[in-house]
Amino acid sequence: MRPLKILFVAAEMAPLVKVGGLGDVLGALPVALAARGHDARVLLPAYDPVMTRKARVITLLPDGSGRLLEYRASAVSVPVWLLETPGFLRRGGRPYLTRAGTPWADNPLQFGRLGRVAADIANGRLVDAWQPEVLHANDWHTGLAPVWMHLENCPAASVFTVHNLGYIGRFPADILSRLGLPPSMNHPDALEFYGDIAYMKGGLGFADQFTTVSPRYAEEIQTPAFGSGLDGLVRARSDRLTGILNGIDPEAWNPATDPALENHFDAVRLDGKRDERDRLLHGLGLDPVTDSPTPVLAWVGRLTAQKGADLLVEALPGLMERSVRLVVLGSGDRDTEQTLVGAARRWPDKLVVHLTFDEVLAHRIYAGADMLLMPSRFEPCGLAQMYAMRYGTIPLVTPVGGLVDTVIDMGDGAPPEKGGCGFHLAGADAPALLEGVDRAIGAFRQPGYWRTLVRNAMTRRFDWNSSAAAYERVYQAALRDKPAPDRPGIPRRRTRLRQRASLGSR
Ligand code: ADP
After folding, report:
1. Which residue's alpha carbon is at the smallest distance from atom 24 of ligand 1?
2. Are both 414 and 499 inside the same structural domain?
3. For a substitution probing ligand 1, which of 18, 300, 329 has the most ligand atoms within 8 Å of its CB?
4. Ligand 1 pocket residues where CB is under 6 Å
5. CATH no. for residue 444?
6. What is the pLDDT of residues 66-106, one digit of tens each?
7. pLDDT tens by residue, 439-487
């Protein structure tokens, strides 16, 4: 396809700022598209003065609320623009939550502005020399960008990706007037959501095309169980919805070269994995048990109900009765954190808990563990299980969303030649988790069988290039209705309004 100008707008981008998988995707997808010849750029808030230290000012925002800067550093290989406002800047690197774990009070205003600025750039208002043909917005933080683009007949096409429908950006309706959006947006067929406003509805309802991060999750969000109250809207526009699996960066996540590891390995030479396992246990103050087959279980991820952290807590006494070691890295719900810290004191020989965000330790855990626990209640795509597999760590997952699309179940003693590389739990509950662990321990005790499993996992490919090609097709579909880029004044066809009128979209 011909090269496109694509502007991504998002709240995270690794390695500049990362809270979860959204950051990883923004760190990789624009680069993958650039490698395919596109001019991909990213608009991101500046959450810390450190981010803006070497930045060049492009322009002041017309309303005086901030500045647009060009980020300069070798850490990223595509152009990055930073939205600098006092509200974002004072966050000290925390995009969403204060140190106490509560949402920043000005989230609706600041992220509302992020959408506004993105739409301004898409409209060719803010930046003289560059105007995108496609604006690609991500999650609720940027859900208002497609709304303004729609209202202002923007010549650029809009694409919106749902990375997690569990967070919909719900705020009191007075935000509309504060952001300069018309009162007509406070309507069930627009942004209204049970008396409030949901930014996510902007992306779902107004983008020319929308996507989510796995084919299975694209089906799930059309059902009440996974739809967060927006499944009606998703169903009504499902002809514009595509599920595209995230990839992983094979260089940043390569056990054969990873600088976080002292012992490197690959699917053929696995000795280094055993050495990393001992190094991990030693470093965490756990005894490397070598005389009996004692697997190292790991948890890397947010300690939230979505991830099933409460199930981990519930299953903990049962887990500790078994011959295992468990390493937990993650933070989240305060109660869960405290319970886990207490449990680590109770079982100091078997359980280690780190409540920090530690990228290097995450790499070492993926390398040194034998199994990754991921009992998510829902999982749009999930990256942790893909990183684990790449490092030969076998994921135990609930069969939902991207976990189904990426982890091939070993079934009950299925022959590993079938490519199995993980275990599907029977459900999102503690007994199912324990039962899955028992099955995995049974497999672990057969070294030849386990090795095949590990090799199957390590040779799975989750590559960004094929995902980038799938996004290209979505961009093409989004552009189909647009006027040619050199004739920006021509109004767009208004099919969407008619469609939305029949939604009943709460
Ligand atoms: P999420 O729903 O949080 O986006 P994903 O599995 O898609 O879940 O992505 C989580 C990403 O964040 C992975 O790259 C994982 O390794 C990383 N991660 C999660 N918690 C931590 C932590 N405490 N320290 C380091 N990395 C973490």
Report:
1. 357
2. no
3. 300
4. 20-21, 24, 300-302, 329-331, 357-359, 362, 381-384, 387
5. 3.40.50.2000
6. 999 999 888 889 999 999 999 999 999 999 999 988 999 99
7. 999 999 999 999 999 999 999 999 999 999 999 999 999 999 665 554 4
Q: Does the residue 265 lie in any domain?
A: no
> Within this chain, do residues 225 and 280 fall inside the same structural domain, yes or no?
no
Domain with 60, as residue range(s), is 5-247+465-505
User: Which of 48-57, 146-155, 494-503 has the least mean pLDDT?
Assistant: 494-503
User: DSSP per residue over 22-87, as a string?
Assistant: HHHHHHHHHHHHHHTT-EEEEEEE--SHHHHTT-EEEEE-TTSS-EEEE---TT-SS-EEEEE-HH
Q: Are residues 240 and 203 in the same domain?
A: yes
Question: How far, in Å, is the centroid of ligand 1 from the Cα of 163?
Answer: 13
Alpha-carbon separation of residue 68 from 34, 65, 127, 217 (angstroms): 22, 10, 9, 35
The DSSP element (H or E) to which 338 belongs, if any, is helix 334-346
Q: Does one domain contain both 448 and 469?
A: no
Structure tokens at 22: 């959204």
How many independent structural domains does the chain possess?
2
Q: What is the pTM of this model?
A: 0.91
Give the pLDDT confidence score for residue 168 in this predicted structure: 98
Residues 391 and 315 in one domain: yes
